[in-house]
Amino acid sequence: xxxxxxxKVKYGEVTAVKGVSLSVSKGAVVVLLGANGAGKSSTLNAIxxxxxxxxxxxxxxxxxxxxxxxxxxxxxxxxxxxxxxxxPSLSVADNLHLGGAAHASGDELKKRxxxxxxxxxxxxxxxxxxxxxxxxxxxxxxxxxxxxxAGPQLLLxxxxxxxxxxxxxxxxxxxxxxxKQRGLTILLVEQNAERALEIADHGxxxxxxxxxxxxxxxxxxxxxxxxxxxxxE
Amino acid sequence: MDIVLQQIVNAISLGGIYxxxxxxxxxxxxxxxxxxxxxxxxxxxAGYGMFFAAAVSLPFPFAVCAAVLFAVIAALLxxxxxxxxxxxxxxxxxxxxxxxxSAILRVIFQNGISARPKPVPLPSGFAGxxxxxxxxxxxVPLLSIVMTALSLVALTLFLNRTTLGxxxxxxxxxxxxxxxxxxxxxxxxxxxxxxxxxxxxIAAVLWIAQRGSxxxxxxxxxxxxxxxxxxxxxxxxxxxAVAGGFALGILEVLFQAFLPDAALPFRDAFVLGFVxxxxxxxxxxxxxxxxxxxx
Lengths: 233, 295
Fold this sequence. Notes:
heterodimer; A: 4-stranded antiparallel β-sheet
């Protein structure tokens, strides 16, 4: 579904991603592991069109490189960025509305909002509140719901469990599993390697902008590199 | 008592004009971090719009519409041909671009139209005064207050009720994420410029209603004041801009009314001195923008 090859991302003199190649097949959950600064977020941002990159990215067989973020989401790839980044002074309702406004209108837009409120009942309770007043976990739910409003085929999730209480982390991973079961394809960047590998079909390990290891979820969980570096064993 | 009430009306009407102008600056700044010093020339364009409308004998209400329309078109053109190509520039680059646009427009007005003030005919009723018992209120300050109030209500509705308005508020908070939603950056920015043009146009009509003429430098002083107002209020904050505009208007009228005659030539020094005190007290302004970005 998604093919990335030789991806490079440069910020001025610094090269954050040095030739990453990866592929995500339809319906799979693929996880990108790596330490801070390994280039995980840069890879996602490049796919979503937020940062300039070289190399090739194709989606459903068609090239994606060089297109602006506004067009890439219309092709069916939505990114839920690191740190949630909800619009704090806008209500939950308005955040959801803006998530879908470029993709649906009228009754279809209302239907999508209803679907997300069914998926996240807590957002229905908070519907009229300002997003900035929600808890971290609720903001994460809102950020994911807002991405889903675009009706994507591929969801890029950047550190969805970062900074959340363990109980909420469970909820987030349950949610990702639920989305997978409904056929959504997910490329997940996660620090919580243990939980991520439990649900991942395939995974890649990034170090200083390069892929150093890849394999199925269980293979990676068994590998020495992952055990030492990310599973704290 | 009579004097005090009349001064209050004057303060609100002058403050309202500053508020509209400061709001125009803030709308653009909150989204593209540009302090648009060509905002004054949008006012001037609106003024010439009124002048030309009167020259072809359009009735006054149409002249007002022409003024606002001219300013909106000018705002969109400057965005498309000056600011959009400079989008990636830093704050200084954008600031210099706005100075250049401002200078170019002024030269066009001076050489293409006239360096001298052009009279703009106003309806005869504008000279009138309404008697409210003890209070004698001029028609112009009253209209000013009403127009300002209507504009603020309309803008509030636009920002809170329409998708584009919400997108503008979202863009001010996190433009990158708004693009991730599939909402076109260019469209949101163009709408912000159009809104700021409309506000400059309305302010120009109110300004001209007090002076009856337009000249190439007309917009310079009020927009300088509006910039001060936007800073008092908190740069990039929309409610702050309105608060700052009214605060500045009230300060100016107060000092004008109550300074001793010998000190009157220094009125602006007193006003700006007071502004400095406000900024020492609240460095980010009265009502700072959520993520106070100073540039």
